[in-house]
């Protein structure tokens, strides 16, 4: 199976958001990756619910929403109203992560956990069977256009081994600095989905970039 690609709207032109969303609708891309940042958990602020509404109105592919916010529990039900397919929360901000995951599922969404570059995969040993997806950050979250951290490949292999050892079907997604130079290595290591912001929206030929990353 080819890699799935989720172009990150953080790298889209917000003055022409409908145009860029429709471009993804009509491309071979698989999901929309939507980065929500609060300026507290990460040193950047992206957008909130008015923009989520605009995305929902125009997007025809699944919405993969990456919450880079403290207290995500507070907003789970609100995100469910925007037709979110997959909601991911950071391990580093969830004191009662098991409860948070159950709440996301109860709200009708698929549930995933995100690990920062410094967070080891084994912290999910006792939760992995509850998860639809694990998102491994391959940059420190907060900004698009950063350089891929090569050690992520080891984490993808570790995570894949954990998932396979338990005979689970949990998806592995990788986010940050993914491009045509590392997509094949990520696929070989066991990733199912990759996020790409700059590598898609910054490409001279965006369709070709999507095709090459998917493989
Ligand atoms: C970073 C975000 C990423 C970002 C990826 O905090 O989570 O999704 O938009 O952008 P690129 O692919 O440019 O690294
Ligand atoms: Zn992201």
Fold and architecture overview:
This protein has helices spanning 17-25, 49-58, 76-80, 97-106, 152-165, 183-189, 198-201, 206-214, and strands at residues 4-7, 32-37, 63-68, 86-90, 110-115, 133-137, 171-175, 193-196. The chain is of the alpha/beta class and 215 residues long. It has a single domain, classed as Aldolase class I (TIM Barrel), CATH 3.20.20. The N and C termini lie close together (9 Å). The protein is 32% helix and 19% strand. Helix 4 links the parallel strand 4 (86-90) and strand 5 (110-115). The protein is built from eight helices and eight strands; from the N terminus they run βαβαβαβαββαβαβαα. Strands 1-8-7-6-5-4-3-2 form an eight-stranded parallel sheet. The chain is globular. Bound molecules: D-xylitol-5-phosphate and zinc ion. Zinc ion binds at residues 8, 33, 35, 66, 175, 195.
CATH superfamily label:
Aldolase class I
Helix content: 25-40%
The tally of beta strands, per DSSP, is 8
Ligand inventory: D-xylitol-5-phosphate, zinc ion
CATH class: Alpha Beta
How many whole angstroms does the radius of gyration measure? 16 Å
Strand content: 15-25%
- Which structural class should the secondary elements be placed in? alpha/beta
Number of domains: 1
Distance between the termini: 9 Å
Which strand order do you get reading across the main beta sheet?
1-8-7-6-5-4-3-2
The CATH topology corresponds to TIM Barrel
Elements, N to C (H/E): EHEHEHEHEEHEHEHH
Calculate the mean pLDDT score and round it. 98
Poorly predicted segments? none
